[in-house]
Amino acid sequence: MMLNIKDLHAKVEEKDILKGLSIEVKPGEVHAIMGPNGSGKSTMGNVLSGRPGYEATAGSVTFKGHDLLEMETEERAREGLFLAFQYPVEIPGVSNMEFLKAAVDAKRKHQGLDEISSVDFLKLARETCKRVNLDASFLKRGVNEGFSGGEKKRNEIMQMMLLEPDLCILDETDSGLDIDALQVVADGVNAMRDGKRSFLVVTHYQRLLDYIVPDYVHVLAGGRIVKSGDKSLALELEAKGYGWLENEVV
Ligand code: ADP
Ligand code: MG
Ligand code: MG
Asked: Which atom of ligand 1 approaches the CA of 202 most closely?
């Protein structure tokens, strides 16, 4: 099992948000999480990544057999969990190149490997820029310095490609995402689907799932999964909205 979330409860600012969330993700699977605004989708991602302020109060989460909730945030990343909406704060004087290399080296160290040489990394980073259609000059820019929406997405997918995580969580909160940026995300995910790597794709938009075809679709409402199905559930939600699920039991 890649990820096993069992009866997870979590609170933010003393408010109970997740109220018995359970999901099982096997290696290679893509799960889409949909649901009304405020239902706890982003909270789920934040709890899984170990963001400070998001406190699990009951239930369990195992990631590749490890107790995820016992792991430090950095440890989760080194172990292969990737959260695509997590941004480094702007760090003066640190370029994207340096930031990305440090992230790659931290993972390599965890795997018992030496640091990647600057020459090799530059080559790899340039190739990856090309794959996500970012100009190579991006590598010299400061971390998070003036990103456009589309560049943010490209940067996220580039990070994902460089880090080669085992589990990728994408939270598509940006309602202003244009079709090009959507396509970058979808192409990136599809290029990285390999039968082993798993994805949790949080999205409001059925449209994204036309490009990233999920194995399962779950509806998160009121802090729990109220319905699960295959990709046809996303179409049903698009047509019917979420109201009809109010009285559903899993
Ligand atoms: P979704 O992503 O499904 O729209 P969220 O997880 O963002 O939902 O939010 C779920 C609930 O938790 C909302 O009521 C929101 O106001 C609250 N919440 C989330 N993060 C915070 C926070 N950092 N501080 C206070 N309340 C929060
Ligand atoms: Mg929201
Ligand atoms: Mg959200």
From this structure: 2
* pLDDT of the residue at 79: 93
> What is the CA(221)–ligand 2 centre distance, in A?
12
Q: What is the pLDDT of residue 9?
A: 98
**Residue 192 · residue 161 · CB < 8 Å:** yes
Nearest ligand to the C-alpha atom of residue 46? 1
For the stretch 167-218, pLDDT in tens is 999 987 555 667 787 888 899 999 999 999 999 999 877 888 989 999 999 9
pLDDT number for residue 165: 96
> Which residue of 12, 203, 242 sits with most ligand 1 atoms within 8 Å of its CB, as the best mutation to test the pocket?
12
pLDDT at 176: 63
What residues are in contact with ligand 1 under a 6 Å CB criterion? 12-13, 17, 35, 37-43, 53
138-150 per-position pLDDT tens digit: 999 988 677 777 7
* Structural domains in the chain plus CATH codes: 3-249 (3.40.50.300)
What are residue 12's DSSP bridge partners? 15, 54
